[in-house]
Amino acid sequence: MHVLVIEDDRDAAGYMAKGLKESGHNVDVVHNGKEGLLLAAGADYDVLVVDRMLPELDGLNMVKTLRATGNQTPVLFVTALGDVDERVKGLRSGGDDYLAKPYAFSELLARLEALGRRKAGAAPQGGGPETVLRYDDLVLDLLSRRVERSGKPIDLQPREFKLLEVLMRHAGQVMTRTMLLEKVWDYRFDPQTNVIDVHISRLRQKIDRGFAHPLIHTIRGAGYSLRAPDKAA
Amino acid sequence: MLRTRPLSTSTFRLTLAYLGLFSLSAASLLLVVYMASVRFMERQTRETISDEVAWLLEQYDSGGLGALRSAVSERAAAEPNRRAIYLLVDASGSYLAGNLDRFPIGQAESGSFSSFEVQVTAGGRRLPIAHVAVAEIVTLDGGGRLLVGRDVHDNVQTQKLMGMAILLGLGVMVVLGIVGGLIMSRWMLNRLERINRATAQIMAGDLSQRIRTDGGDEFTELAQNLNAMLERIERLLVSMRQVTDDIAHDLRTPLTRMRSRIEVTLMGEPSAEEMRDLLAATLQDADRLIETFNALLAIARAEAGAQHGEWERIDLTELARDVVDLYEPLAEERGISLQLVGGKGAVIQGHRQLVAQAIANITDNAVKYTPEGGIVTIVTSGTPSPSVTVTDTGPGIPPELREKAKERFVRLDPQRSTPGSGLGLSLVEAVAKLHDARLELGDNMPGLKVSLTFRPAPPAEAVELRHAAAA
């Protein structure tokens, strides 16, 4: 992916760029909002990382201006303002996701990749939203709420169904525990105990047990990912 | 502090502007009255003169110049003080009769009114003084000329008096206006001065100071609003100070540990594997610090109550169901039965994320401290007030420690054998305060009973109305 990082803290931007390059992405870095806007509007990036508070043109207004020109490149806001309401402001101004400092790099990477893929898959696939999700030998029917793997029906609780749906929509990507909490429970906070792991292990029991290869993978220090062996990322 | 003087207050300026406008309109009104009076007096004089001229001309028409001459003489004799003025001359301009010896200089053609000065010895004075007179002059058929006039000195005096009275009145009005303005602005300043003095003291650092709110006018309202603002600022400051204290208290230890570990490892000749271990351990420490930090910030934000914009109607039963759903697998794994007894009508007005987090934290604690085979029950109820109660069959908390358990970083387990930052219940307490709710820790016999009692949400229609009014 081609990523533009707009962050005024040069150290932070440097580490971010290094980490993203090591993860196989192409990174440009600028340190103020004006330059960021020029670059973002001029080149075709897959995703932008924008700090909320930037010199010359702050992040919110930069993204507002960019959106006003019709540019729809996904934006991940990174900010020291972690307030729930700040998050709402960021999303309203045209941001697609919001990450509060301090954050784990794995969290940033996972969210960026989720946004980048979304852009790649955003092209209309013809005729309304899809009602059946397929990945490898796994089929999830959103209407009849049935799940099959290799033709064998699997019985899931409503929440397990939702969890699998989110994993399938982001198949191949890393989903962090925070991202799963957001998308499955709509929680914007992390519970004190790590409850997601238990949910995943339950889902694994039903999805992976007794089949030739596992689909749900634990990504150390980051989260989980739905991956087929022949489609290793 | 900058003192405002009465002369430069807005009240005074407003009074002056009003006074100016009022004087202008009063002056124009009086001017109109004055002019009308002057005209009226002039017209009266002229009518009197014209009547007399008409009568004298009748005498002339019927009796000729002789009759006119005796009529004029008779009339003039009756007016030694020249209040009425008569003069009759023949064609050559020689005096025939009247109380004036000759035509005043520059007296114009006949048939018109004109004014001139006459010398009058009035009021027993020796020397004659000049009075203004108005007269009509008529040229007779036979070539003679007749002048009939009136001394208008009294009229002029009256007009002068009127003018003086008007000017005096206006002057009094202006003076009274200025004095009134000064008094009014002085009064306003006094009211404001009290507020200013209190604000100055507060600015000097005494945040507990409040402005007196006696009275009941708009100044009282201002004072009340300022007081409410101060209350909020004070609360924010206290909460900020608390956060700083807490950070100093609990973040220093792990930071020191982290630093020593790095320092000690760097002192030797670390192998690549040792370096990797060090970094992994440091990362873990950093993560824990971030977690603590985030928890503290969440508490501070909840305490500051900055998020009212995001408030909505929430059903506590729905929220509790989600939490049960989230914790059920964990409870099952630990051999604990997690149950929900959902009541109807447990609806509140609040911040969804924060209330959910509060319920999750209480449930988290209950599941954490309940031994295998235990039961954790969440009960929601709408009556008498919306509430969530979480009971467990764990060790419970002795009554004397229950208040302490709500404090930050307090962990009642001295070995700290269970994971946690000691901030879970503090957040619940902060969320409770933000929602004006009550957090109570009680005895479940055995076990702990934690309940959150909220205020009921206003009826849905009322909320909609308020929204409509706001929109």
Number of helices of chain B: 10
The number of distinct structural domains of chain A comes to: 2
Q: What percent of residues of chain A adopt helix (DSSP H or I)?
A: 25-40%
Strand content of chain A: 15-25%
Across the major sheet of chain B, the strand order is 2-1-5-4-3
Task: Explain what the structure shows.
The complex is a heterodimer of chains A (233) and B (471). By secondary structure, chain A is an alpha/beta fold. Chain A has two domains: 2-120, 3-Layer(aba) Sandwich (Rossmann fold); 132-231, Orthogonal Bundle (Arc Repressor Mutant, subunit A). Chain A is built from eight helices and twelve strands. In chain A, the strands form three sheets. Chain A has a five-stranded parallel sheet with strand order 2-1-3-4-5, with helices on both faces. In chain A, strands 6-7-8-9 form a four-stranded antiparallel sheet, with helices on one face. A three-stranded antiparallel sheet of chain A has the order 10-12-11. The radius of gyration of chain A is 19 Å and the shape is elongated. Chain B is of the alpha+beta class and 471 residues long. Chain B folds into three domains: 11-157, Beta-Lactamase (2-Layer Sandwich), CATH 3.30.450; 218-303, Signal transduction histidine kinase, dimerisation/phosphotransfer (DHp) domain (Helix Hairpins); 307-468, Heat Shock Protein 90 (2-Layer Sandwich), CATH 3.30.565.10. Helix content of chain B is 56%, strand content 16%. Chain B contains ten helices and twelve strands. Chain B has helices spanning 10-77, 153-203, 218-250, 252-267, 272-304, 316-333, 352-369, 402-405, 424-434, 460-470; strands at 84-89, 95-98, 112-120, 129-139, 145-151, 312-315, 337-341, 347-350, 375-381, 387-391, 438-443, 448-453. In chain B, strands 2-1-5-4-3 form a five-stranded antiparallel sheet. Chain B has a five-stranded mixed sheet with strand order 7-9-10-12-11. In chain B, strands 6-8 form a two-stranded antiparallel ribbon. In chain B, strand 1 and strand 2 form a beta hairpin. In chain B, helix 3 (218-250) packs antiparallel against helix 5 (272-304) and helix 6 runs parallel beside helix 7. The radius of gyration of chain B is 51 Å and the shape is rod-shaped. The two termini of chain B are 41 Å apart. The mean pLDDT of chain B is 82. At the A-B interface, helix 4 and helix 8 of A face helix 5, helix 6 and helix 7 of B.
